[in-house]
Sequence to fold (114 residues):
Amino acid sequence: QVQLVESGGGLVQAGGSLRLSCAAPGSITIINTMGWYRQAPGKQRELVASIISGTTTNYADSVKGRFTISRNNAKNTLYLQMNSLKPEDTAVYYCNAPTPIYRWGQGTQVTVSS
Fold:
């Protein structure tokens, strides 16, 4: 089973920005319908953004207007641009399909300080 690789996380102050990336190994092509999930300590993993057939995007209310999901087909990479970050955005972020089909990767840690 394919495992995707997330990167781009880090420590940022509230109000700051980060861009997360999700790439597939080798010649594997990421499917057109994908999502970004996050899991905060002690909480269940939640889907925060999705892109359907490479075009239509959906967002959880908690991130709407601040996060943008996109993909670059030439680079076979999925992105999550996160602006106006809040301490409650602190979590490990993962990429996968909205109905998960890939093996869960290690994710990338995002920590937002107040």
